[in-house]
Amino acid sequence: MTRIKRKTALFFLFLICVRPCLSAADYSKFSHSTPKHQAACNTCHKFPAKDWTRISSFPDITDYPSHDACVSCHRPQFFRSARPPICSVCHSKTSPRDEVRYAFRNPAAKLQFAIEFPHDKHQDAIAMLRFAHPPQGYNNCTICHGPRTAMFKAAPTDHGSCFNCHWKSQEPVAANCNGCHKLASTPYVLVEPARISAKFIHDGGGEKKQHVAECTTCHINITKSASLRGLKPDVPITACTECHNKDGLRQDLSKELIAIDKNRSFTCVYCHAEKVGSLDPPASHYLIAQRPPLKRRDIK
Amino acid sequence: MKLVFFALLLMATVVLAQQPTAQQTGVLRLRVRVKADDAAPLKGLSRKRFFLIPGTLEQNRTLVTGIEQQPLTTRDCYYKQRHASAQLINWLQEGDCESVYCRSIENEFVTGPKAVPEFANAFAAHHTEFGNDVIALQWLTNYLSPDLRDGFYKDRERLLQTLLQQTGMIQSVMTDQKGSAYFTDLGPGTYVISNVIPAELGQTLVTWNCEVQIKPEDLATEKPYLISNRKDKTVKCVGIEKPKPTCAAD
Question: In this structure, how many other beta carbons lie within 10 angstroms of the beta carbon of residue A278?
Fold first, then answer.
């Protein structure tokens, strides 16, 4: 009995000793989800930053909040030691003699905010083919989605294209961060859309550059999309086969389906990279070729 | 032990067999071809939003009546009533734009003979703040009055919300330059395709309220559906045309 009591007492003593270690905040990491960090954004982030011209071509938040934003609550942590961990949230060297900070925002830090963008509300800016009727320059998707590679368009990586219209007056305005940035419960991970037809070239389509069309001609669901969640590039096979599998024109799809008939290990290469091209063609492809769908394993 | 294993295997097989298979859905390819007047060529109606509403025309009678009887302010009338300059109205008309976001605002519309006074004032206001010509031009719309910037769009949005609040509106898409739009992931059933807000076409307003059926045989394929403001054997639904209402600002 005495032995059990001693063990229990030791266990509680252990808990008492360990508890402060377990609950001690890690001041080297800043979380926007901490309740006291959820004040209005401009409590800490001054907009635009004082010296934005040094870093950006347009007024923006280009730097970390000033010391005042932290010191008002975290004075003890600032003067805890010669190298206070709290400094390392912004500073690459935790020394009072060194002011060097990480790039803003720190590319190595996990994203704490998800981004919301309703494509459906931007209909005036996303549809018309630019210079369709020269000399009028219609706005279209390229305002935000510039070329990244010959194959794929880029997504916006800064506020530049947003502020063209949302700097002030037009909500969500630049100072209303929460209008687009929503605090995420888990680190937000930017997901690159899965590329199915890796060989498609946006500016291609032969000498006549037939691929240069209004974006919504192929991305058929974009004008109804109210959120970025679950958004896919959504290009139906019919967008391709109107030219690439048409009687008297081209038979690019049918030819590859026939090649699979002859050799079930054949890799479709006209549109796809090896990984996708070696899968079973989906039923939609066979439908276009007016054939019943087949699985490679069923081909002898 | 073996018996238990087989019993579990049997149960798993039965459960898997009862899982519903992925439901097949269909695609409706809407094509809108219009004539502004009898002499004009037939062309695609671009940049107009269409809605797919579940149910028959009869089931959506209240909505259809609401759409047909709504008082509508035309684009030009809206801007005239907000005292927009003739140059701004002309700039919008040139590009068939409903808002200032439709076209890029080039320098020639800020200074010189083609200048739009509202753009010139907005440019000057931005320039005063930052002293940067490039940004002043790019961010110009930020300095326009709300009425002229997005008031027309917001008025239409309010109208849409009022009309559609009672419906189970499932999809809305905008037509592309050729007048095509796709409704995807459709189950079999009857739907109403409507533009809800009449399209301005020359001197008329055109409204489509078209009943379309998606049959089981339409699934897993693309069902073409052509609508127009002119009758033709290939046209599945003809819109109702009304003359544009007179504008109080005239």
Answer: 14
Query: B234-247 burial, b for 16+ CB within 10 Å, e for fewer?
Result: ebbbebebeebeee
Contacts of A73 (CB under 8 A, 6+ apart): A36
Which stretch of DSSP H or E encloses residue B162? helix B152-164
pTM of the model: 0.81
Q: Is B179 exposed, middle or buried (0-12, 13-18, 19+ CB in 10 A)?
A: buried
Question: Which of B101, B150, B178 lies at the smallest CB-CB distance from A139?
Answer: B101
Per-residue confidence (pLDDT) for residue A136, from 0 to 100: 58
- Is the pLDDT reported for residue A89 higher than 70? yes
Segment 175-234 of chain A within 8 Å of chain B by CB: 213-214, 216-217, 220-221, 223-224, 234
Ramachandran angles phi, psi of B5, nearest 5°: -60, -45
- pLDDT over threshold 70, residue A14: no
Q: How many CA atoms lie within 13 A of B202 on its CB side?
A: 14
| Mean pLDDT, chain A, whole residue set | 85
Nearest CB among B49, B138, B139 relative to A123 is that of B49
The whole-angstrom separation of Cα A140 and Cα B101 is 10
pLDDT digits (tens, 9 = 90+) for A29-46: 999 999 999 999 999 998
Task: Please give the share of chain B, as a percent, with pLDDT higher than 90.
Answer: 64
Q: CB-based contacts of B103: which residues, under 8 Å, 6+ apart?
A: A136, A137, A138, A139, B91, B95, B97
Candidate from B101, B103, B220 with C-beta closest to A287 = B220
> pLDDT for A134-184, tens place per residue?
455 777 888 888 887 777 888 888 998 899 999 988 899 998 999 999 999
Q: Which H or E run contains B33?
A: strand B26-34
Check CB contact of A287 with chain B, cutoff 8 Å.
Answer: yes
Decide if A220 and B181 are in contact by the 8 Å CB cutoff.
yes
- Put simply, the chain A residues between 66 and 85 with a CB less than 8 A from any chain B CB are none
Which of B101, B110, B130 to mutate to test binding with chain A, by most A CBs within 10 Å of its CB? Answer: B101
Q: Comparing C-alpha atoms, which of A32, A28, A59 is closest to residue A44?
A: A32
Note the pLDDT tens digit of each residue in B149-185: 999 999 999 999 999 987 877 789 999 888 999 999 8
pLDDT of residue B139: 92
- With CA atoms as reference, the chain A residue closest to B46 would be A128
B146 part of contact set with chain A, CB < 8 Å:
yes
Phi first, then psi: give them for residue A250, nearest 5 degrees: -140, 160
- Quick one: which of A60, A35, A53 has its CA closest to B131? A53
Question: What percent of chain A stands above pLDDT 70?
Answer: 88
Question: What is the residue whose two structure tokens read 């037809």?
Answer: A197
The type of residue at A147 is P
> Are B91 and B120 in contact, with CB atoms under 8 Å apart?
no
